[in-house]
UniProtKB/TrEMBL annotation:
Record-annotated Transcription regulator PadR N-terminal domain positions: 12-85
Parts forming coiled coils: none
Matching PANTHER family: PADR-FAMILY TRANSCRIPTIONAL REGULATOR
Superkingdom field: Bacteria
Protein name, per record: PadR family transcriptional regulator
Alphabetical list of InterPro entries matching this protein: Metal_resp_DNA-bind_regulator, Tscrpt_reg_PadR_N, WH-like_DNA-bd_sf, WH_DNA-bd_sf
Organism: Micromonospora costi
Pfam families in the record: PadR
Length: 119
């Protein structure tokens, strides 16, 4: 994926970075990671997981029957890990740039520009 990830997708990949999880576990983990800001509904989650599987970022690790219902566990693939790492670096650079600009604003000092502007 070359475009920036939407926040729910970023959080799903983040939740899967440590261990495989099933759908309802992912819903809870995404809520925890976002301090409750992102509340995924099952339909939204499973649609996102289908897209992530199709993109090769997530795989189904295993399926098991629990209380008569199929529980599917998902895991991050190497491509998913690379995408999450790349997106984390992109977000970190954005945060660093914003932090520097806010610091400039607070102190009244201007730092050298990181990129060229319009002439």
């Amino acid at each position: 994926m070359d475009t920036p990830l939407r926040e729910p997708t970023f959080l799903i990949l983040t939740a899967l970075a440590t261990e495989p999880m099933h759908g309802y576990g992912l819903i809870g983990e995404v809520a925890a990671l976002s301090d409750g800001r992102v509340a995924l509904r099952p339909g939204t989650l499973y649609g996102a997981l289908d897209r992530l599987v199709d993109a090769g970022l997530v795989d189904v690790e295993r399926e098991e029957v629990v209380d008569g219902r199929l529980r599917r566990y998902y895991r991050l693939t190497p491509a998913g890990e690379a995408t999450l790492s790349s997106e984390t670096d992109r977000l970190r650079r954005n945060v660093e740039a914003a932090t520097a600009r806010l610091r400039e604003r607070a102190t009244g000092a201007t730092a050298p520009r990181l990129a060229g502007g319009l002439a």
